[in-house]
Specification:
Blueprint lengths: L1 H29 L6 H24 L4 H25 L6 H23 L1
């Protein structure tokens, strides 16, 4: 069980780094400031790695409702991120409402994960 708790903390840290990158990308989008596509790809890769770590921890041992809910929200955020990626691959900015939904789901998931791990 101690290993699972450690993995949850690592997932939280990785997802927090992805969130910082995501907020930076969202601000650049709203301000219409261009950024290299590689920054978005790195954000997605780090976020996906965090979600995979979280999923491994959740499926290894049963977790409380906040952690399970966080995994659900992060899974939805991955779908939203894939949607945003499709726009980027077409060399178009993603719709702002989709960026807000993607980021909102991830940030609420991050808060729930913090509650679940810290509690």
């Amino acid at each position: 069980m101690e290993g699972t708790k450690r993995m949850l903390w690592i997932a939280l840290a990785v997802l927090a780094v992805a969130a910082i990158g995501g907020v930076t990308l969202a601000v650049a989008l709203v301000r219409q400031r261009p950024f290299p596509a590689s920054v978005g790809y790195i954000h997605g890769a780090v976020g996906l790695a965090g979600v995979v770590l979280l999923a491994i921890a959740v499926f290894a041992h049963s977790q409380g409702m906040p952690v399970n809910s966080a995994l659900l929200l992060f899974s939805l955020a991955v779908v939203g991120g894939a949607f945003n990626l499709l726009f980027r691959l077409q060399r178009e900015p993603p719709p702002v409402f989709m960026v807000i939904l993607h980021g909102g789901a991830a940030l609420v998931g991050l808060a729930l994960l913090l509650i679940g791990v810290g509690g």
